[in-house]
């Protein structure tokens, strides 16, 4: 996990990245740069540059955020999140602890895992 303090994160992240990654914020639906985005490559953590997702696991869920059906093995940690009156699974970067989004299961999207990783674009950095 990260050894950075909030003050140190504020130096390396934009204010919006800090709000999402470190304060578990959510970018507005449909606004993220990777929502409608289909290039081949790897999505890294915007906080620490760890590899999180490959483009082959990305699919169009229509929900307004980038959706993936699986991560790179070991890249994420999952936490129960009972905030906002919902039972959700929060996903964070395993390396720096940055908040990425949530996992939803059993939605019957036609994917191998039947999971939807709903990830904030701003938490990601794409590299071809
Ligand atoms: Zn990270």
UniProtKB/TrEMBL annotation:
Cofactor comment text: Binds 1 zinc ion per subunit.
Keywords: Metal-binding, Oxidoreductase, Zinc
BP-aspect Gene Ontology terms: protein repair; response to oxidative stress
Catalytic reactions of this protein: L-methionyl-[protein] + [thioredoxin]-disulfide + H2O = L-methionyl-(R)-S-oxide-[protein] + [thioredoxin]-dithiol
Family, as annotated: Belongs to the MsrB Met sulfoxide reductase family.
Record-given protein name: Peptide-methionine (R)-S-oxide reductase
Organism ancestry: Eukaryota, Fungi, Fungi incertae sedis, Mucoromycota, Mucoromycotina
EC number: 1.8.4.12
GO molecular function: metal ion binding; peptide-methionine (R)-S-oxide reductase activity
Coiled-coil zones: none
Necessary cofactors: Zn(2+)
Residues covered by the MsrB domain: 6-128
Annotated organism of origin: Parasitella parasitica
